[in-house]
UniProtKB/TrEMBL annotation:
Pfam families, sorted: YfdX (PF10938)
Name of the protein in its database record: YfdX family protein
Source domain of life: Bacteria
InterPro entries the UniProt entry points to: Uncharacterised_YfdX
Length: 80
């Protein structure tokens, strides 16, 4: 694992993955994606609601933005 970490620190993702593969260690990469424009609008709307003291409504708007997050997972190295 230390060798893989050193390779990652140097920007060698492929080398790190190969090292982990040899050790039989599984790795999953997750990317969290948010629609930028809709999220910005939701945050701005929530700020206005907070200024108006409408905390519950602001929370609902932020929850809606959070629900828009898409998680993309990829198994890079299969474990044992």
């Amino acid at each position: 694992i230390q060798s893989a970490n050193e390779k990652l620190a140097k920007g060698d993702q492929k080398g790190a993955i190969d090292t982990l593969r040899l050790a039989g260690i599984g790795v999953i990469e997750n990317q969290y994606l948010m629609p930028l424009n809709q999220t910005r609008k939701a945050v701005a709307q929530a700020q206005e609601l907070l200024k108006a003291g409408k905390y519950y409504e602001a929370n609902l708007v932020l929850k809606g933005a959070e629900d828009g997050i898409v998680v993309d997972s990829e198994m890079l190295v299969a474990g044992n």
